[in-house]
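Researcher: First entry.
Model:
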Amino acid sequence: MLKLDKLPFGIALGALAPILGLVIYYFVKAPSISFGEFVEFFFTNKAMLTAAGSVCLIANIILFTLFINSRRDKTAVGIFAMTVMYGLIILYAKFFM
C-alpha cells in the first residue's frame, strides 16, 4: 500500500471507492441492463438506493479501517469525510427526491 498520509489523497480515495462499489454492485446484480438504466433505476427506486448505497459506503468503511490500522490518520480523515458526504447525499436522495 502507498505510504501517503495526506488529506487530499483520502478525499480522492473516499470519492472513488463508492463509485467502484456501485460498479461492482451493478455487475453482480444487474448485468443484463445498461449501466445508464441501472443508475436511473438506482436513483428512482428507494429500496435500490438503500441497498446499493450501503454497498458503496461499505467500500469506504473497508478503506477507512485499512488506513486507520496502518496509522495514516490524515488519509483516514479524508475517507471518513467523504463517507459522511456520500451518506448525506444518499439520505437526501432517499427522502427528498
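Researcher: Second entry.
Model:
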Amino acid sequence: MVWKYKIDLEDKTIFSKIEQSREIEIPEDLKQLVIDENAATPEKYCFMVGNNERVFGSVLSFNKSDDDTVFKALDVVQDKNLLPFGIDPFGNYICLNLKSEEVVFFDHETDRIESTGKKLKQFIESLY
C-alpha cells in the first residue's frame, strides 16, 4: 500500500496517554499504522460497507497541533469501545471497535455505526 503526506509523530508516548485517559488498550497493529502513516492518505481509498462504497480520506493525526486529529474525533465519537483512526472527506470517521477489533464506519451526523466485517489488517489490504 502506498501512502502520501505522512506527518511524523511529535510525541512517542501519545498512545499510553490516550490509553490512560480513555481507560482503553490500543491494539499494536493500530499503533504501528499510526507510527508508519500518521495523517497520511492511502493511494487506494475506497471500501465497502454493506452495499455502500465509502472513502478513506486519511489516517487521523495523533499530533495535537494538526488539523484532523484523533482528539477532535474523540469529542464526536462518544462510544468508548470505538477508537477513530481515519476520516472520510465528509467528516465521518473510520473507527476500530476495541471489543470485536472490527473496523466500523461512523456517520458523524446520525451517530450510525456500520461494520465493515474486517479486522484492521484485512481492512487496509481490501482498500481499492
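Model: Note on the second entry: Residues 66 and 96 are 21 Å apart (CA to CA).
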